[in-house]
Amino acid sequence: xxxxxxxxxxxxxxxxxxxxxxxxxxxxxxxxxxxxxxxxxxxxxxxxxxxxxxxxxxxxxxxxxxxxxxxxxxxxxxxxxxxxxxxxxxxxxxxxxxxxxxxxxxxxxxxxxxxxxxxxxxxxxxxxxxxxxxxxxxxx
Length: 140
Known about the structure:
By secondary structure, the chain is an all-alpha fold.
């Protein structure tokens, strides 16, 4: 397979991690400001703003280079994406069951693309960090 193919995803430089961390407190401030500006705002809308920004933040962290990008890190990254999708499937199934038990239907206003992307990127980030931690623990 050619190196410049569709399947070659370029990683962001490590400087993007600083930008990613801005996406975590920023929506909280934005939602607080919107609550004062528009007190009748739907709470579900506020949650979606949070989920969307946090999904972007974790997505940038997941696509940012490590200081050393060796074969082990590449393997960890691929395994983290597989693990993230696995746990997202079970997480979404659990949300559907909870909605069914609570509301007698499988969907709700909170069950959106923003929530799914947030969960996916959170799971990928957690799996990647856990693998790096376990590898560093085994080296000592």
